[in-house]
Amino acid sequence: MPHLAIETVTLRYDGGAPVLTNLSLDIRSGEFVVVVGRSGCGKTSLLNLAAGFLKPASGSVSVDGRKVEGPGADRAVVFQNDALFPWLSTAENVSFAARLAGVAPAERGAEAERLLEIVGLAGLGDRPIWQLSGGQRQRVGLARALAANPAFLLMDEPLGALDAMTRESMQDLLLNAWDRSGAGTLLITHGVEEALYLATRIVVMAPAPGRVIRRLDVDFGRRRLAGESARSIKASPEFVAAREDLLDSIFEREAA
Ligand SMILES: Nc1ncnc2c1ncn2[C@@H]1O[C@H](COP(=O)(O)OP(=O)(O)OP(=O)(O)O)[C@@H](O)[C@H]1O
Ligand SMILES: [Mg+2]
């Protein structure tokens, strides 16, 4: 089972003070790990290490025991802003990597259609990107990431730019896409409710230097996938208590 391991890493930019120290994190297939923490605590830096865009000063990043030397198709990244190609159609954006790999057009088209269906955009493959809403574009970004059938899905505030209602429906979409793909998922968010709703495990970071101060396992996402309504989950006493508890950790408040 694929296993992404970040082990006791320290990260510095240009030899400056450490941005991350002694940080370890494991992500396995079927896990949905959500990282929360105050602005500037190093969340994006951590994701960039996992993606292979950055290298640690010490410690290691590996997949199944093999050291990560750079970005790879096993670790797909979804960016905060969609990062789509505006001159390509929706379907062509989704199947861009397959085109580079020389996959025949008919096969690419069928695969793009399958992925667009998963993200709720069936039938919109021929649309130019500029005719899609922000939420739809973000879904194309997710479909493109899923196209590589990645072992790991890495997302840095993928829903951060969306309005509250679109964001809630996208959360369900992320849960379903994660459930169907089985990809080990790492998501960064500023939303405490979002973290609780999606995660199997929440990792809380604190700043200066960036480090993990808490890990907690939750099962609200699994309850949602089992059919309980979002309203019922978010109004449940367990959810409300977990939210307060998590806010206390993030802001390092004394528990009342
Ligand atoms: N390319 C860079 N060069 C130098 N310092 C950087 C660079 N990128 C980030 N930093 C610094 O590293 C620290 C962590 O930044 P990072 O972007 O990882 O935080 P973050 O938790 O993602 O913050 P936010 O919640 O605001 O997105 C910050 O102090 C930031 O100023
Ligand atoms: Mg960030």
Structural class: alpha/beta
Stated plainly, the CATH topology of the largest domain is called: Rossmann fold
Estimated helix fraction: 25-40%
**What is the mean pLDDT?**
93
Bound molecules: adenosine-5'-triphosphate, magnesium ion
Output the strand order for the largest sheet.
6-7-8-3-9-10
**Unreliably modeled segments:** none
Number of strands: 10
Radius of gyration: 18 Å
Morphology: globular
Strand content: 15-25%
Number of helices: 10
In the CATH scheme, the class of the largest domain would be Alpha Beta
Largest sheet: 6 strands, mixed
Q: Could you give me the name of the CATH homologous superfamily of the largest domain?
A: P-loop containing nucleotide triphosphate hydrolases
Q: How many domain units?
A: 2
Calculate the terminal CA-CA distance, rounded to whole Å: 41 Å
Q: What is the element string, with H for helices and E for strands?
A: EEEHEEEHHHHEHEHEEHHH
